[in-house]
Amino acid sequence: MNIRFLDPTSLQLVFRTGETHLFPRRGLENYGPHESPSGENITIRFVYPKNYQTVVNKFKNVLESGGNRFPGFENVYRIPIELSDDIMLDHTEYRGIELPKKLAKAVEEDKEIANKPIYVIVVHPYPRWQKSSPYYVFKSHLLKFKIMSQMIRTDVLQGRNLDEVAYNVANAIFAKAGGKPWKLFTKIPSFSGTADLVIIIGFGLTRVPRDPAQRIFDRYAGYVIVMNEEGLMDHLKTFVTQYEKTVMRRKLIECIRDALNSALREHVENIDVIFHYSSKELSIEEEKSIKQLLEQISKDQSVKMNYAIIRIITHPLYRVFMDTDDGYPLMASYVEIGDRLLLIYTVGKLYEKITPLGVPRPILVSIRSSNIDIQEIDKEVFVYSVIGTARMNWRNTGIFNREPTTIRYARDIAYMVASFNEIVNLDPAYLPEEIPWFL
User: Fold this and answer.
1) Looking at the structure, do residues 279 and 348 belong to the same domain, yes or no?
2) How far is CA 107 from the centre of its chain?
3) Is the pLDDT reported for residue 155 higher than 80?
4) Are residues 273 and 319 in the same domain?
């Protein structure tokens, strides 16, 4: 087996005025973000327990004015932030499934504002499966009024370097305000070699437990995310459905149909669609339904649709070791295993002294199905689709992100939409489709 490498320039990211940099953080500081949101500033409102006022004030100061390493929000993102009045809550006001009165009053005022503030809410750590936790309660109520929120756990504010926290929180806030921090330097090419348009569709299903202790499941939650050839999210659709395979399959197909119709807003004659999915294998019925849908859309819209369905396995047994002192493989290296398997390093050694923490683990890609002969497919396109979407993780500004964003948020999104549906009867169809509210 021969180890291969992507062109190093494909790892570069694009920032303001087309400037490029390998490191997201340095690119933002040197050049500014790729695209700013509309409006003259980004308004932020902090919500936190009263006994955390001191540490929150320290964090606000770092976020606004900068610290030892974080230069300050405006210096990084080229747009000022405006801090609205804080809302301090008693410990008891974090309980229940309704918004505390003080918070509800502020929401009533803010929901009418065109440039709505983003709420930064400090919460205590809770288990992800606890649907009535303040994390889900606050976020669901705010989303009901189209207000974005950014949650910060108390242990993060107290136990980590505030400059590091500020970088990641600021990037998520900027994206939720409608900004685009960066995009891919090299567009994802056509795997068929003929397409006018290339899109990536990530989809996933998660069984949501009713009682985690007894492993009783009563719901499926799923999502379909569309990314364009520059790595930017174009469309996100989520759903919650009963724990029944036929119903679940129908909802998944509906969301994929919406995603494809969204991508085909402007007519093209030839399109490549790369599907990313993870976790369980597709059933024969699920794969058949996807193929039938693609054939129908191709016929209805008079477009030639080339597709490839690839499964992303995040914990493979395979490893690659290089003939170097530490044996670490290079980032963006890959190995073909037969005709249908690709072992890909989305993280790894960059330069002599730049390596991820710990031994880098690869991702295994299995080419499940395609209407293009496997011998005619440019499989390096699949490698770049995985590495490129891993580079588009706006949840932080670090250089190393192992999983592609097409699957990275599957479980987080699933637990969110399932909880939102139960807490405030928030229909997932109502959630924003073009803003990464889930970051």
Assistant:
1) yes
2) 26
3) yes
4) yes
b or e along 370-404 (b: 16 or more beta carbons within 10 Å of the residue's beta carbon)? Answer: bebeeeebebbbbbbbbbbbbbbbbbbbebbbbbb
Judge if pTM exceeds 0.85: yes
Q: How many domains, the chain?
A: 2
First-residue to last-residue Cα distance in the chain: 38
**CA gap 105, 301 in Å, rounded:** 48
Residue 407's CB is within 10 A of a number of other CB atoms, namely 24
Give the phi and the psi of residue 282 in degrees, each rounded to 5: -70, 140
Say whether both 224 and 330 belong to one domain: yes
Same-domain status, 286 and 228: yes
Gap between the Cα atoms of 278 and 402, Å rounded: 14
Q: Nearest Cα to 269, choosing from 234, 304, 297?
A: 304
- Give whichever of 187-196, 239-248, 346-355, 412-421 has the largest mean pLDDT: 187-196
**What mean pLDDT do residues 209-214 have?**
66
Give Cβ neighbours of residue 227 (< 8 Å, ≥ 6 apart): 199, 200, 201, 202, 233, 234, 389, 392, 405, 406
Rounded CA-CA distance 161/171 in Å is 16
| Distance between CA atoms of residues 192 and 85, nearest Å | 54
For residue 318, give the nearest of 287, 285, 361, 265 by alpha carbon. Answer: 361
Looking at the structure, do residues 131 and 236 belong to the same domain, yes or no? Answer: no
Alpha-carbon distances of 342 from 229, 400, 402, 414, rounded to whole Å: 21, 20, 15, 28
As beta bridge partners, residue 119 has: 45, 149
Residues 6+ apart with CB under 8 A from 435: 148, 175, 176, 178
Confidence of residue 1 (pLDDT cuts 50, 70, 90): low
Pick from 87, 113, 111, 112: which is nearest to 100 by CA?
Answer: 87
Report whether pLDDT(357) > 70: no
Q: Same structural domain for residues 140 and 168?
A: yes
Which structural domain range is residue 224 located in? 183-423
Burial of 296 (0-12, 13-18, 19+ CB in 10 A): exposed
Question: If 0-12 CB within 10 Å is exposed, 13-18 middle and 19+ buried, where does residue 346 land?
Answer: buried
Contact 338, 404 (CB under 8 A): no
- Clarify whether residues 170 and 267 are in a common domain: no
The span from the CA of 366 to the CA of 276, in Å, is 10
